[in-house]
Specification:
Elements (H helix, E strand, L loop, with lengths): L1 E4 L4 H10 L6 E4 L17 E4 L7 H9 L4 E4 L9 H6 L3 E3 L6 H17 L1 H9 L17 E5 L3 H12 L3 E5 L5 H5 L3 E2 L2 H7 L2 E4 L13 H5 L5 E5 L8 H9 L3 E6 L21 H8 L3 E3 L8 H19 L13
Parallel strand pairs: 1-2, 1-3, 3-4, 4-5, 6-7, 6-9, 7-8, 9-10, 10-11, 11-12
The structure holds nicotinamide-adenine-dinucleotide.
C-alpha cells in the first residue's frame, strides 16, 4: 500500500509514523495542499491522505482515479472539501475520522470564550510589563447566561456538558434533537428564537450548502446587542464581511473564531515575514474583542493519536475489503 499524504506537518509525520509501525505502509509526505496545482505529485499511490484545506474537486478526483487511487482518507471529521458524488462516480472509497476527540474541540471553544471574556491574554502581557492595572479587563459571569448551541452532535454535546457545569441555560438547534440532552435540561428552539435569546452562541454544525453564511447581516441583527459569537466549526458558516460590520457597530460584542472562510491560504503556515493580501483577516485581527486561532481546536495529543490510528486502520480495512462501519467512517 502506497499513500501520498498531503498538507503534512512535522506533528502529522510524528504521529502517523508511530501509527504505521505495524502496518508498514509506504507513506510519501508532501507539505503542499492537494488541489489542481499539486495532483500531479501523486505517483503510483493506492491511497491519498488529506486534511481540512485540501481541495478535492471533481477534476482533482477524476485525475486521482486516472492515476489508480482507490482510497481518499480524510484525517478529519468534516468533509465539505470533497466532492463525494465525484468520488462515487469514479469508484473511490472515502473514509474520515468521525470522532477523534470531540472534547478537544469543545474544550478549545470554552478556552476561547473564557479568554475573550476575562481577557487573560491581555492580562498575561500586561503583568509581564509590570502593568497591574485592571482598566479594560472587565468581563462577565458565565453563571446564569443563556448559551445558544447550533449543532448538538458529538462536539456540540461535549461543549454543552461543560457549559451546564457553569450553570448556563442552554438553548439548542439541530435538525435531529438529542433526547439525552433534553433530559439534562437543554431546550431545543427554532433558530430565530436561539438567535434572539442567547447571550453567547457557539457553532457546532457541519458546513453544508443550506447553512453557508448562517451568520449573516439578517441573523446578526436579531441577536442580542453585544453577543459573544464562537465558531470552531467551519469558516463558511459566517459571512465575514457582515461580521466585521457588526463588530464595528458593536452589535457583536466579542468574536472567537478557530476557522475562517479563506483559511486555506493562511492557516498552518508561518507568514510572520509576509505581506498578507487578505484585508478581512487583517481587519479581524485589529479588533481587541476578536480572538482568532488558526484551526487548532482539534490539536491535542489524544486527538492526533486517534486521528493517526483510525486513519491507518481504515485504509488497512478498506485494502482488505473489510469496510469500517458505514455512515461514520465510510463516506462512499
Ligand atoms: P457531528 O456529525 O457529530 O454533529 C453535527 C451535528 O450538526 C449533528 O447533530 C447534525 O444533526 C447537526 N446539523 C447538521 N446540519 C445542521 C444544520 N444545518 N443546523 C444545525 N445542526 C445541524 O459532528 P461533530 O463531530 O460534532 O463536528 C461538528 C463540526 O465541527 C464538523 O462538521 C467540523 O466542521 C467541525 N470540526 C472542527 C474542528 C476544529 O479543529 N476546529 C475539528 C473537528 C470538527
Amino acid at each position: 500500500m502506497k499513500i501520498d499524504f498531503f498538507s503534512a506537518k512535522k506533528y502529522d509525520i510524528d504521529f502517523f509514523d508511530i501509527a504505521n509501525k505495524t502496518t508498514g505502509f509506504e507513506i510519501n509526505y508532501h507539505e503542499t495542499h492537494l488541489g489542481p496545482h499539486s495532483v500531479n505529485m501523486v505517483n503510483d499511490a493506492d491511497a491519498i491522505c488529506v486534511f481540512v484545506n485540501d481541495k478535492l474537486t471533481k477534476a482533482v478526483i477524476e485525475q486521482l482515479a486516472q492515476k489508480g487511487v482507490k482510497i481518499i482518507a480524510l484525517r478529519c471529521a468534516g468533509f465539505n472539501n470533497v466532492d463525494l458524488e465525484a468520488a462515487k462516480e469514479f469508484n473511490i472509497s472515502v473514509c474520515r475520522v468521525p470522532a477523534y476527540s470531540p472534547q478537544a474541540v469543545a474544550e478549545h471553544a470554552v478556552a476561547m470564550l473564557l479568554t475573550i471574556n476575562r481577557k487573560t491574554h491581555k492580562a498575561y502581557n500586561r503583568v509581564r510589563e509590570q502593568n497591574f492595572s485592571l482598566n479594560g479587563l472587565l468581563g462577565y459571569n458565565l453563571f446564569g447566561k443563556t448559551v445558544g448551541v447550533i449543532g448538538t452532535g458529538k462536539i456540540g454535546k461535549a461543549f454543552i456538558k461543560i457549559m451546564l457545569g457553569f450553570s448556563c441555560k442552554i438553548l439548542a438547534y439541530d435538525v435531529f434533537p438529542d433526547s439525552e440532552l433534553e433530559k439534562n435540561g437543554v431546550t431545543y428552539v427554532p433558530l430565530n428564537k436561539l438567535f434572539q435569546e442567547s447571550n453567547i452562541i457557539s457553532l457546532h454544525c457541519p458546513l453544508t450548502k443550506e447553512n453557508h453564511y448562517l451568520i449573516n447581516k439578517e441573523s446578526i441583527n436579531i441577536m442580542q446587542h453585544g453577543i459573544t459569537l464562537i465558531n470552531t466549526s467551519r469558516g463558511g458558516l459566517i459571512n465575514t464581511t457582515d461580521v466585521i460590520e457588526a463588530l464595528k457597530s458593536k452589535q457583536i460584542g466579542a468574536l472567537c473564531i478557530d476557522v475562517y472562510e479563506q483559511e486555506e491560504t493562511l492557516f498552518f503556515k508561518d507568514l510572520s515575514l509576509e505581506i498578507i493580501d487578505d484585508d478581512k483577516i487583517q481587519r479581524l485581527i485589529s479588533f481587541p474583542n476578536v480572538l482568532l486561532t488558526s484551526h487548532q481546536a482539534f490539536f491535542t495529543k489524544e486527538a492526533l493519536e486517534e486521528i493517526a490510528n483510525v486513519t491507518i486502520n481504515s485504509i488497512s480495512k478498506i485494502d482488505q475489503n473489510v469496510m469500517p462501519q458505514k455512515d461514520s467512517v465510510m463516506l462512499t
